Amino acid sequence: MADKFFCKIANATLASGDNNTILPATAGQGYKLWQAIVVPGANADVLTFKNGSTAQSIVGVTANGVSAILPFSDVPWAYADVGNALTVNSGTTTTKTTLCYSQANGPC
Questions:
Q1: CB-based burial of residue 88 (10 Å sphere; 0-12 exposed, 13-18 middle, 19+ buried)?
Q2: Alpha-carbon span 23 to 51, nearest angstrom
Q3: Is 1 contained in some domain?
Q4: Is residue 100 part of a domain?
Q5: What is the pLDDT of residues 61-93, one digit of tens each?
Q6: Per-residue pLDDT tens for 10-31?
Q7: How many domains does the chain divide into?
Q8: Domain around 82
Q9: Pairing mode, strands 17-23 and 68-70
Q10: pTM flag (> 0.70)
Q11: How many CA atoms lie within 13 A of 102 on its CB side?
C-alpha cells in the first residue's frame, strides 16, 4: 500500500555546536520542513534551522520545559536548496527533534 502522506519523518538528538546535519545534501534533491517538535532536555536551548549554513528559522525551549511545536502550515518553516543539507545549530546535547519534511527535485 502506498504511503498516504507526502511528509517523511526524521528524528535526531542534537549535538552541541554549529550545523548538525539533520537531512544530508543530496544531488538533485532539496528539502522543505513542514512541521517540527523540539523536546528540551536538562538545558535551555535555541535551535536555528539552516539551508546549509544560512539561518532561516529560530525556536527556543526552556530547560526541562514544555516541548515546542512548529505546526504544519502552508509555508515551510525552513528549506534546503537542491544539493544543500538541512542543518540545525544547537547549544546543548540534550535537545531532540522530530521533523516532518518533503523532498523536492527542483528549487524549494
A1: buried
A2: 10
A3: no
A4: yes
A5: 988 878 899 999 889 999 999 999 999 999 887
A6: 999 888 887 889 999 988 999 9
A7: 1
A8: 8-104
A9: unpaired
A10: yes
A11: 15
Instruction: Compute CA distances 26 → 46, 52, 82, 103, whole Å.
Output: 27, 12, 7, 10
DSSP string for residues in the chain: ---S-S-EEEEEEPPSEEEEEEE--BTTBEEEEEEEEEE--SS-EEEEEEETTEEEEEEEE-TT-PPEEE---SS-SEEE-TT--EEEEES-SS-EEEEEEEEESS--
* CATH at 27: 2.60.120
Q: Is residue 85 in some structural domain? A: yes
CA distances from 67 to 22, 25, 54, 106 (A): 19, 28, 25, 33
Position 2 in a domain: no
Enter the C-alpha cell of residue 84.
Answer: 544543500
Rounded CA-CA distance 13/103 in Å is 21
Per-residue exposure over 52-75, b if at least 16 CB sit within 10 Å of its own CB, e if not: eeeeebebebeeeeeebebeeeee
**Residue 7, C-alpha cell as written in the block:** 511528509
